[in-house]
Automatic annotation (TrEMBL):
Protein name stated in the entry: GGDEF domain-containing protein
A matching Pfam family: EAL
Record-annotated EAL domain positions: 595-846
NCBIfam families xrefs: GGDEF, sensory_box
Domain GGDEF: 453-586
Domain PAS: 143-216
Organism: Ciceribacter naphthalenivorans
Gene3D superfamilies listed in its UniProt record: 2.10.70.100, 3.30.70.270, EAL domain (3.20.20.450), PAS domain (3.30.450.20)
Domain named PAC: residues: 220-273, 349-400
SMART domains: EAL (SM00052), GGDEF (SM00267), PAC (SM00086), PAS (SM00091)
Length: 854
């Protein structure tokens, strides 16, 4: 049906539904969308924007969108359906077609009330065409970027004077012209600044500034001398103009640029000096004027001519007897031929020749001559001669200077090329650097994508480089980097490109035709060569490489995106064991996206105080009295509930917040222990897990000093691998301080690592925790019982308490008692629980009901 020129689609499906009238009167393109994303009804404005859906009822809007926007659009619809009170909106692009270009839209969705939809669940989605606005925005950004690029690339310093605010802005180039760093102070007043202006220029500068501030166009540009920070004078050309006025017509804002014209002034001065020389030379070389009559055979010379050729007297000069005899023999023939030709044709001409004076000196003469026939029919010639000997000498000097300048210019070009090479190459390896790589990627991105050659990017990261660099020093690390660069250079083919982008990372751009086997072979060759030992300082250093590969055989992927994909692949190669290569896949990208989202959630969780301790109580093996409680980290996720460390621990380590979580759990556990004491509940000791980053934290001492607890009431649990594999000076100092504070040291999961008796003696822990894997079969397996008994015996001999983890049955309790174990912990006695559940658990004494054999 049609109302007011707008169309409501499918009237038979919407009869009686209130949205029909609503769509008709909406001022924007609008549609009613069902739960499946299908269009149930729309108005004529919508039909004009989306003709395909108007022609195909119940079509999907998402199908018309750019691929990158489809998921977001569907998500927006789903979120709007899920939240009735919260409208949603987004911008998206319609896919371009052979007959139309890309168009931008703004979509706003809200859920329709049941009164308007009957039994259906539906959304009202309204659309605004943003294409024109987007184009204007792009044009504005282009103009702004063009101005910014021009300003950055110029050598002029920008200043902005706000007379209405008494403030000034000076750009970095403005400061650089004067030798000032960003932190150097600037003159705070006109009087202070005038002390930097050359005394001869101050009065004129003040006048020029006054007129410039008044908006006088004649003073828009002026120049003066100012003292550089280093003490010498520089010439500055100041260009300024008023761009804003107050209501009463006075200048409010003046913007301008300062340009260093010192070099130009020096050039002008040099030219002025040369011009003075030329003027003096011209004045010194007096011009002589003559007129020759070939009919009479006589020439009339003025005093200047006679002075030039040193001929005395006042009588006319016979043609062929004086001037001709003074011509230099080497120039005479040419001069006579040119003279005869031009006189015959009555053509004006210029000439230059030499004469030999009576004293044997040679002078250069330049002439300008005009042949003609007078009213009497006489063939004549009038001309001017002047001695240009000095000019010739000056010309020779200028030619010499030009030759020297050209030589200097060539030297500057060579220096410029050398500087550019340095700017684009890594000084250590000689390979292109990150700047050169970005330039290369820009070039590849600028090539037409249709028919473009395939491209593969290998992102290479050296394994074990940090250990070599840290243990043998930076010189050894540099040698390994040069070796890696040599390995990569050997693999470069025509059209390939390799760069060091920083640290121990390299990028290899290779031609790719779709043959992954060749690409894998290239990566394997690089890895094999990297594994070869490198001799340094009398020993062999070994390192390898992990390689992430992203490839595109059709030129459809932007090179910058391809580099990001290779980085994602490198991440998976390193996580898969290092010293190998891995290809980018969409599945890996999705997993990395999930990890990034988890990392973001962890950071948000820390900000929102979502991490808390869960407590698993420990019991004396003989009396089953509570001997302590282990505080276990838990994450109360607002959507996923309470999460255990196996979900978030790896991501927390990658983003470097595991130590923060450890510290937070300890602080909350100490608070909870005080609350137990206030309720009359005894918990002798709190144990917390300590990660390697926290044990190696230089600030751990200060953080612990800020906490209040009694000595002997707190225990830190360390994994074997921490003190066996990563023990260093920082960790040793922190462990010493823990003992000084009365914090006990426990070795967690003992029996699953590589601990030795010597290591235990060196660390001197107070407690060993036998790993649950050894406890599981202690009541059934004689060998397992003997092994656990040996560990307990070792603890007894060293004066170390022993805690058995993973106790789940009464038989295990009995056997561990017989083996003289000190403390029991496990699900058979107590499961981890939130603080609010602990009081009731302690009061019920449920763990004492475990059915122990007689």
């Amino acid at each position: 049906m049609r109302k007011h020129g707008r169309t409501v689609e499918n009237p038979e499906d919407t009869a009686g539904v209130p949205w029909s009238m609503m769509l008709t009167h909406l001022p924007l393109a609008a549609a009613v969308v069902g739960a499946g994303g299908e269009v149930l009804a729309f108005n004529s404005l919508f039909a004009a924007l989306f003709p395909p859906i108007a022609q195909q009822p119940h079509g999907s809007i998402a199908a018309l969108l750019e691929p990158d926007d489809r998921v977001a659009f569907r998500t927006m619809l789903a979120e709007t359906f899920a939240s009735a009170d919260t409208p949603r909106s987004m911008q998206f692009a319609l896919s371009a077609s052979p007959t139309s270009s890309r168009r931008w839209m703004q979509a706003s969705a809200c859920r329709l009330q049941p009164a308007m939809t009957g039994s259906q669940t539906a959304l009202l989605v309204q659309f605004v065409d943003l294409t024109d606005w987007k184009q204007r925005e792009d044009e504005l950004m282009e103009r702004e970027s063009r101005w910014n690029y021009a300003l950055v690339s110029s050598s002029s310093g920008v200043w902005d004077q706000r007379l209405d605010r008494s403030s000034m802005y000076y750009s970095d180039v403005w400061r650089k012209i004067r030798g000032l760093s960003p932190d150097d102070p600037i003159a705070g007043s006109t009087e202070e600044w005038l002390l930097l202006v050359h005394p001869d220029d101050r009065e004129r500068v003040l006048r020029s500034i006054e007129r410039q501030n008044a908006g006088d166009p004649d003073y828009m540009t002026f120049s003066y001398r100012e003292r550089h920070k280093d003490g010498h004078w520089i010439w500055i050309e100041c260009r300024g103009a008023c761009v804003e006025w107050t209501d009463d017509g006075k200048p409010a804002r003046i913007i301008g640029i300062d340009t260093d014209i010192t070099e130009r002034k020096a050039s002008e001065e040099a030219l002025t000096r040369m011009s003075r020389r030329l003027k003096l030379a011209l004045e010194a070389s007096q011009i002589g004027v003559f007129e020759a009559d070939f009919t009479t055979g006589l020439a009339e010379w003025d005093a200047g001519m006679r002075k030039i050729f040193r001929v005395e007297g006042e009588e006319d000069i016979p043609i062929g007897e004086v001037w001709e005899k003074m011509l230099h023999p080497e120039d005479a023939k040419g001069v006579f031929e040119r003279l005869a030709q031009h006189v015959e044709n009555l053509a004006p001409f210029s000439d230059e020749y030499r004469i030999i004076r009576s004293d044997g000196t040679i002078s250069y003469i330049r002439s300008r001559t005009l042949p003609f026939i007078d009213s009497d029919g006489h063939r004549k010639m009038v001309g001017a001669n002047w001695d240009v000997t000095a000019d010739i000498a000056l010309r020779d000097e200028l030619d010499k200077a030009k030759t020297q300048a050209e030589a200097r210019s060539r030297e500057l070009e060579i220096a410029k090329a050398r500087i550019e090479h340095i700017a684009l190459h890594d000084h250590l390896t000689g390979l292109p650097n990150r700047r050169y790589l970005d330039k290369r990627l820009e070039e590849l991105a600028g090539q037409p994508r249709s028919g473009a050659a395939g491209l593969a990017i290998l992102h290479i990261d050296l394994d074990r480089f940090k250990q070599i660099n840290d243990t043998l020093g930076h010189s050894a690390g540099d040698a390994m980097l040069r070796r890696a660069a040599h390995v990569l250079r050997k693999q470069v083919r025509e059209g390939d490109f390799v760069a060091r982008i920083g640290g121990d990372e390299f990028v290899f751009l290779a031609r790719y035709t779709g043959d992954r086997q060749n690409l894998s072979a290239l990566a394997d060759r690089v890895i094999q060569d990297m594994r070869k030992p490198v001799p340094y300082a009398g020993q062999e250093c070994r390192f390898s490489a992990s390689i992430g590969i992203a490839c595109d055989a059709k030129g459809a992927v932007d090179p910058h995106q391809l580099l990001l994909n290779a980085d994602i692949a490198l991440y998976h190669a390193k996580n898969s064991g290092r010293s190998r290569h891995a290809y980018f896949t969409l599945d890996r990208h999705a997993r990395m996206t999930d990890n990034r989202r988890l990392a973001d959630d962890i950071l948000r969780g820390l900000e929102q105080d979502e991490f808390l301790p869960y407590y698993q109580f420990q019991f004396d093996a003989r009396s089953l009295d509570i001997a302590g409680a282990e505080a276990l980290a838990r994450w109360r996720h607002p959507e996923r509930g309470v999460l255990t460390p196996d979900v978030f621990l790896t991501a927390a380590e990658e983003i470097g917040v595991i130590a923060d979580i450890d510290g937070l759990i300890l602080e909350k556990a100490l608070i909870d222990r005080k609350r137990w004491a206030q309720d009359g509940l005894s918990t002798p000791k709190i144990s917390v897990n300590v990660s390697s980053p926290r044990l190696h934290d230089p600030a751990l001492k200060e953080k612990l000093d800020a906490l209040a607890f009694e000595p002997g009431t707190v225990s830190f649990e360390l994994l074997e691998s921490i003190f066996l594999d990563e023990n260093d000076k920082q960790a040793t100092n922190n462990l010493r301080h823990l003992r000084e504070l009365g914090i006990e040291i426990e070795i967690d999961d003992f029996g699953t690592g590589h601990a030795s008796i010597v290591s235990l003696l060196r660390l001197n822990p107070t407690t060993l925790k036998i790993d649950r894997e050894l406890i599981q079969e202690v009541s059934e397996s004689r060998s397992r019982r003997d092994l656990v008994g040996s560990i307990i015996g070792i603890g007894r001999s060293l004066g170390i308490r022993v805690v058995a983890e993973g106790v789940e049955t009464a038989d295990q309790v009995r056997v561990l008692r017989e083996l003289d174990c000190d403390i029991l912990q496990g699900y058979g006695l107590a499961v981890p629980m939130a603080f609010e559940n602990t009081a009731a658990f302690i009061q019920r004494q449920e763990w004492r009901r475990i059915d122990l054999p007689a």
